[in-house]
Recover the amino acids of this structure.
């Protein structure tokens, strides 16, 4: 299981690891190491810190984390920052939503010939390479550091893209295809 459960849970509660750290002083390294683990291995201290940050009881937090773990939740991306975090976590499934998805499609269309645009609207396979390029360009807008850019570039090529519906694009790791 290669999912960053903590990040996904915090995201659903409109928080980030940094908020937990600010609110409770629990170290970012600690949160980062917990992020990849199964919920059953979370320490009480961690659960308490999360509960305090999202303003819920420890029991509720534990229940919600376990439920999330069972349903293999997708990491939802609403902006470049989310996308970078998702790539950093090597998420298996990333869903690009809302305005960011529209932005991405607009950018894609400006890159495409008419035939390709038609394919995009029909949801054809030509999507894959196009979206990899589009993500790179969107990332360019937000990142000036070359090493970060290279990291993303190498990550983005590991994903396949699928248009789920008019509001969502799903990225999933290529290796899940085999």
């Amino acid at each position: 299981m290669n999912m960053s459960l903590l990040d996904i849970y915090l995201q659903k509660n409109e928080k980030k690891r940094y908020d937990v750290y600010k609110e409770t002083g629990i170290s970012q390294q600690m949160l980062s190491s917990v992020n990849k683990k199964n919920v059953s291995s979370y320490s009480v201290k961690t659960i308490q810190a999360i509960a305090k940050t999202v303003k819920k009881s420890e029991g509720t937090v534990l229940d919600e984390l376990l439920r999330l773990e069972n349903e293999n939740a997708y990491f939802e991306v609403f902006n470049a920052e989310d996308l970078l975090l998702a790539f950093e976590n090597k998420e298996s499934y990333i869903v690009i939503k809302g305005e960011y998805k529209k932005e991405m499609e607009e950018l894609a269309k400006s890159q495409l010939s008419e035939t390709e645009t038609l394919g995009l609207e029909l949801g054809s396979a030509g999507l894959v390479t196009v979206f990899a390029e589009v993500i790179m360009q969107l990332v360019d807008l937000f990142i000036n550091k070359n090493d970060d850019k290279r990291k993303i570039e190498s990550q983005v090529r590991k994903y396949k893209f699928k248009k789920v519906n008019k509001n969502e694009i799903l990225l999933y790791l290529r290796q899940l295809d085999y």
User: Anything to note?
Assistant: The mean pLDDT is 77. The first strand starts at residue 75 and ends at 77. Strands lie at 75-77, 93-97, 159-165, 168-173.
